[in-house]
């Protein structure tokens, strides 16, 4: 077994033990379910201004998504970029899976008229530049 296979196997085993469900699309970016994205659920709860139970997570997350849809990049706090990026990737992955895993829009395209998701491959919010934030937010708004 190669080192990378052993590492992948160890990560898979840890996910199973912790009970974390992760979709792994073809680009290798793990996409965690929104109910298991602690940072997203905490941010959604703080936006709504109350502690939530599991039943309310979905409505609070939807309120956070509405907040992002109605915001400009200038007013998105840096602490929201991680959850925003992960939600962007999660929504693209869902769209991809709904299309039977054959959504050509996942790949950056130079073809006119084709939507390209230029930030889907980003593994960590630290890879974003400040001038990427308006573009990321614009793409996010197109997804919803």
UniProtKB/TrEMBL annotation:
Name of the featured protein: Uncharacterized protein
Organism: Rosa chinensis (China rose)
């Amino acid at each position: 077994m190669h080192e990378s296979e052993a590492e992948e196997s160890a990560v898979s085993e840890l996910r199973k033990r912790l009970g974390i469900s992760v979709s792994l699309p073809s680009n290798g970016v793990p996409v965690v379910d929104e109910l298991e994205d602690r940072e997203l659920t905490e941010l959604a709860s703080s936006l709504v201004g109350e502690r939530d139970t599991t039943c309310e997570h979905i409505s609070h997350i939807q309120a956070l998504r509405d907040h992002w849809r109605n915001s400009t990049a200038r007013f998105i706090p840096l602490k929201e970029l991680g959850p925003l990026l992960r939600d962007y990737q999660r929504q693209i992955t869902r769209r991809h899976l709904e299309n039977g895993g054959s959504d050509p829009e996942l790949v950056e395209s130079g073809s006119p008229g084709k939507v390209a998701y230029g930030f889907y491959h980003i593994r960590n919010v630290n890879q974003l530049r400040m001038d990427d934030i308006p573009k990321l937010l614009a793409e996010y708004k197109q997804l919803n």
